Fold each of these.
Amino acid sequence: MHKKINKILLTLIASIVFILTFSLTCGAKSNEEIKSFKTLEKGVLTVGTNATFPPFEFKDKDEDQEIKGFDVDLINKIAKKLNLKVNIVDMPFEGLLPALGNKIDLVIAGLTKTEEREKIVDFTKPYFYGKQSILTLKNVNIKQKEDLNNLTIATQIGTTANEFVKKLQEEELNNIKIKEYDEYDIMTQDLVRKRVDCVVLDDIVAKNQFNKHFPELNLTQGSVLNCPTENYCIALPKGNEKLLSSVDEILNDIINSKEYTELQEKYINIKLKSEENEETKSNNSIVNQFLTTLVEKERYKLYLKGITTTLVISVFAALLGFFLGIVLAVLKLTKNKNGKRSLIGKIANFYINIVRGTPILLQLLIMWLVVFKNFKNGVFVAIVAFGLNSAAYVAEIIRSGINSVGVGQKEAAESLGFGKFGVMFYIVLPQSIKNSIPSLCNEFISLIKETAIVGYVALNDLTRAAFSISAASYQTFMPLIIAALIYYIITKTISFILEKAMKRMN
Ligand code: GLN
């Protein structure tokens, strides 16, 4: 009896152990298997995408620009099961496939499997099916292919839509004009502004854009153009079979599970605005716009952060520009023994001319991409770029201030025993700076406004904050007007304070 119970117990324990190990090894990949995955960095899956394709991949405008979307969630699920960490790299769409295998391990970007692409990369099984569709303004109706003739069509560079329209132009409708863009958002905005007649793009993304610009737009399914169904797949470099088959296997499991339905619920099943009831449509009063721009999701905080960035850059750049400007002005006026401009003077003059004769945006980009290419701190680079730029203008202001100080004063000072430098630093400079204060104040105010371009070096200043809020709230008028108002208040307050201070000094 005892022996029998023992036997039963033993078999039970053995089966539990067996089932446990079996299920564990099935759920996650074994260590051996993980080690055999060829990735650029051990234990990390470096994923390339182009985050301008909502709802598949997009930057969250409200929360520190994090990349989100259907594809992002999907690849995170896959990587988790592969026991790999995910590192997402955002790059231009047309740069994704060339980067496979050298900068990234795989591409997930709502990418359609095509014959051309299959020649250079491997594709997984499809995880989504899409179609092309057409966005037009309300008064344009596309009922058949021929209606596209004579229209200007916008498409994103390197996409299947781009290829499709190009082929159509070559083979059937020679009068189509094609405009190529980098971003869907800008394409649709140009459509609304009537710069193009229609946009051809993937249907889910089209719905997303339609909802942003409803009620200006019409959405037509691509079936009127006989567009084929497109299979969205993940792309891997050729020859990484182990990783490919594992990704495929996991993808298959996910697609057949409730996880996939949840993903679809979360990102894809977007209701078209035109299908919603009228209530939401009419609720776009000025007050409502104001509330969505400032109060909703605490967006005013984005403005506050933006103001801080703008002011920090402006104030420090102004200080750098002021001191450097004085040095430049004095150097420019130095003379050699023959009474002509010295070599240092010529160099200073050359610098001033170059800086004043080239766009500040280019100077900023040269600093960011060339001179400080290994620096991550954009604020520092912006301060240096704007400081160096402002110095050239300050130098000219101070120089004319110096010239305005009478020769008599200089001679008097010299006769009192002041040396050349003494005259400059104790007599001439203080007076010329004092005379230049109104122009220096103007320079500071211009500087504040000029910093509106720092968004180019990935900084979230006041202007950038307005763009972000505009993209997140689907409003254009209110976010931009509020930013303009804030700039106005800042510059007015500063000139008021400076004027008051000057009156005191006088
Ligand atoms: N599905 C389209 C393509 O593969 C568009 C993808 C995208 O723009 N991210 O070309």
Amino acid sequence: MKIGVLALQGAFIEHMKMLQRLGVTAVDVRLPEQLDGLDGLIIPGGESTSIGKLARTYGLMEPLRTLAQEKALWGTCAGMILMAKEISSGSAGKDQPLLGIMDIVVERNAFGRQVDSFEVDLDVPALNNGYVKPFPAVFIRAPRLLGVKGTAKVLATLPDGTAVAAQQGKWLVTSFHPELTGDGRFHAYFLKLAEGNS
Ligand code: GLN
């Protein structure tokens, strides 16, 4: 199994380490030809406007959309913003390129300045964890899901009901950063999607 991590900007090294720990070949992707032969791709956290502009500069936008038609794609934090079809009015950056793949509406920087970053124990039913072994979720200037449409479904919510993870077929988005916690269960879940087993 070979999984790419978009490595234009942001937290890509941690994703690669986690994939390697799970026994998978991890490829850092900066050019369209590096998408060939991948079983799936992770778009990491970082700054979504910068990642989008760099992806446009390197001619990656269309090749990424084409890859998504067949393969598993996971956007964490800024990656979730890039995968969305819609960003709530007011929260999108000026000239912010979007891949516009997934039927979700996302609000950027949704948690305000006071709680710029925080950690929460999440119940994620898809991981069958419950509150016995909650998933430690790290949020850093995170977006939230305002709407989940079509065949997309919410995978996890905060205790106040805010949706922070979703799935649509082979596509996964999380507002938080599973690569920063040392807990590989979300990566393992993504690998199952990439294998076509979930
Ligand atoms: N605030 C960033 C954005 O809107 C996302 C932050 C992150 O990826 N940790 O692009």
